Give the backbone structure.
Amino acid sequence: MIGDSEQLPSQIVIPPVTQNSTFKLTEMKNVALLLAIVCCLQLFSCSKNSDSEKFKLLTGPTWQSDSLLVNGADASGTGGLLENFKGDAKFNTDYTGHFGSYTGTWRFAFNETQIVISSDSLLLPLTAIIAELTTSSLKVTTSYTLPPSPTLNIRMTFKAK
C-alpha cells in the first residue's frame, strides 16, 4: 500500500515539442540519410581495382597465329577451316578485338577457363578452352560437330609478338 506521504502522479507530463527540438530531429534525419547515401555510393562505386592475371596476360601482347589445326592437320591455308583466324589477334581491355580477319568481342567464361569470341562474321560464337596462357603462348582448343560429319577437334596456338 501506498502511504499518505507517497503519491503517484495522476498523469505523465511530456514536454511540448518546440521549434528547436523539431529542427534537431529533422537535422538528425538528414544526417542519417546523408550517411546512408554515402555508404551506398561507396559500396556501388567500388570497381575492380585490379584485373586478373589471365586478363593481363591475354590483353597485353598482340598474338601471332602459330598453328591452326583441325584433327591434327593444318587448317590455316587457302580454303582451310581456320584460314580467317590466321594472322594477328588482339584482345583489347574493353573486350573488343580482332582475331585474324574477324573483328568482334570477347569474354571469359567458366571462371576464366574458357574464352568466347563473337563476331558478325561468325555463324556462332566460338567458345574455346584456354589450354595454355603465358606471357609468350596462347593455346585454345574446342570441338565442333555437325552431324553426320565427324567431330572436328580444333587447336589454335598463338605466340606473343
